[in-house]
Amino acid sequence: MLMRALAAAGVAMSLLLAACATPSQQHERNAGPVAPDSVLVSAPLSPDLEARILAIDPRHVSDDDVRHVLAQGPTPRIVALHGGIYPVHLVMESFADFLIGMGYPEREIRDPGSHDLTHSPYEDARVLAGEIVWYYEHEGVRPMMVGHSQGGMQAVKVLYDLAGLLGDSVTVVDPVTHTDLGRMTFLDPLTGKTRPVTSFRVPYASSVGAGGLASLLPNQWIMAERTFEIPDTVEDFTGFQIGVDLIALDNPRTRGRYEAIGRANVRNVTLPAAYSHYYVANVEPLAKDAKTRAWLNAWTPALVGHDPPAGIDPENIQWAADVWYSIKEHWVTEAQNFVRARQAMAKH
After folding, report:
1. Residue 146 phi/psi, 5° resolution?
2. If I label 28, which of 7, 154, 221, 260 is the partner at 20 to 30 A Cα–Cα?
3. Distance between alpha carbon 5 and the CA centroid of its chain, in Å?
């Protein structure tokens, strides 16, 4: 059903006509200011769980590590950004369901206000940037972003907003009520220090199928010359290009390659030409097979460009493996930073 629905929308120029923002449902809740050390103190972590989190190698994370250790501890929000053609949001919902099938806690993928699994590229990027800072301030682990098509451009746009490079200042925003809290600073939950929003860095973000025709959309004009230039508000960024992609046309200056404009670590990965721009994030089926899950969890960057052995479905698996590896790596790092800060606090 997913493939039939997407095929009906698979006309390239509909990128110029689509508008698929989903209204948010607001839920009342007291999200008062964070007190120093309150996030660290309130975390229900046993000494045994802390020790098991610290023992994980971020470069080699097993299924057991995910399901029985990491999922029990501090877990970063995943902000999945879908493209602009209706119903292409179903593809990123498939990616979200893939993460859940691989053991990622569903509560850290769904939007706490709307309960949606994905975000629209027609949302205000400044608001999303402010919400990302709020998540860290209240949860102690920094969110990650994964964008597809126009959603990939939106992910980079959020990074620019966080850096204050698009003009207007970014303020902290409550993601449940979408209330602008009017603060251009946040309390770092791990250090107890007040920091400017512009100092915040996302640990990991990625984009696949960005640019091209989506650059003609009014809401992305400002990104037309910026999509492939990554600012300092992310630590690790992976830009994926499909070998033949008639929708995400190459940027004439960079030829579709992402570059850091500062200190961000930027990777470029070319996916097989057989991959489809529309379906590349349709990866939920991969998480349903035990043999495939084992291969995905054992994957490392040394296998970039290599399909799995016979008996494992290769469709979109190279993209899924690369993104899942990076998410696990940064999940471990964020959780370990949280535990170390908590243990340091307990000594004082």
Report:
1. -130, 120
2. 154
3. 25
Q: Pick from 114, 121, 145, 120: which is nearest to 132 by CA?
A: 145
Task: Write the pLDDT tens digit of every residue in 19-70.
Answer: 333 323 333 344 556 888 899 999 999 999 999 999 999 999 999 999 999 9
The pTM of the full predicted model, rounded to 2 decimals, is 0.88
What is the number of other CB atoms lying within 10 angstroms of the CB of residue 28? 7
**Please, are residues 160 and 200 in contact by the beta-carbon 8 Å criterion?**
no
State the Cα–Cα distance between residues 14 and 345, nearest whole angstrom. 54
Domain annotation covers residue 32:
no
Is 214 within 8 Å of 150 (Cβ atoms)?
A: yes
* Biggest distance spanned by C-alpha atoms of the chain: 61
Neighbouring CB atoms inside 10 A of 19's CB total: 10
pLDDT digits (tens, 9 = 90+) for 168-184: 789 999 999 989 999 99
Domain tally for the chain? 1
Residue 69 belongs to a domain: yes
In a domain, 12, yes or no: no
